[in-house]
TrEMBL record:
PROSITE patterns: PCI. This is PCI domain-containing protein. GO terms for biological process: proteasome-mediated ubiquitin-dependent protein catabolic process. It comes from the Eukaryota. Belongs to the proteasome subunit S14 family. It comes from Gymnopus androsaceus JB14. GO terms for cellular component: cytosol; nucleus; proteasome regulatory particle, lid subcomplex. It holds the Pfam family CSN8_PSD8_EIF3K. Residues 76-241 form the PCI domain. The keyword Membrane does not apply.
Amino acid sequence: MAQNQLKSKYSDLKRSFEAKPSDLKKCGSLLAQLKIGLIETGLLTPQGELNVDDLVVARDILEIGAIWSIRARDVPSFDRYFSQLQTFYTDYSSVLPPSKNEYPIRGLNLIRLLTQNRIADFHTTLESLPIPADAIADNQYISHPVNLEQCKVWNARERAPVEEYKFFVDSLMGTIRNEIASCEEAAYESLPLKDALTLLFFNNQSELLTFAQQRSWQVDLSQSVINFSKKGEEQVEIPKEKLISASLAYARELEQIV
């Protein structure tokens, strides 16, 4: 498929996608043709230096494909489109102009991981986002799935069928907190107090400070930040994904209890 033909079909795709309502059937047909065109022009999995305008078109096509997949209720298709977009979001992030669809799609991927109960993958993906932890709350597309995941664990206590269950739930919550704390120590050198408060499910700063003291964390109240203690100067490689997987496994057990 020639470049001019590719751009012509891309224009048709945008019109069909932006129609009210979207023409999902036509979008599906055009996307199938356009993916062949992207393969033929070397833009589906780009490598090396390529024309920026062509890369933007390719990225837009794949982003439309990802959103179309959700509208068409085709999760495997979304997985493929999201995987193909990673090259554009990572390798070419410094070359391409920002995309308004990038974080909505990243957020959709996080929700997908939650719905598939892939909690370890959720946290690993969250850590790999190109935004600092203290900026997540300001990004509605990322903060929404984060809030969903946190409420899923914390609200389990309030759903306890009888009062006695809360005794074990509280005990298990303490275990979860310590496992998540270990993940934080492995993943970060420091963390803002407000983020640690949220991640560890504390109700107030006083509870967090008591917990920080128990774990020998250094708290800088003037900067509102926690500095995680390191044992000596030794460099220890900590398997973050394994720690995260273990910590959230407790959360799944908690849900089964209540």
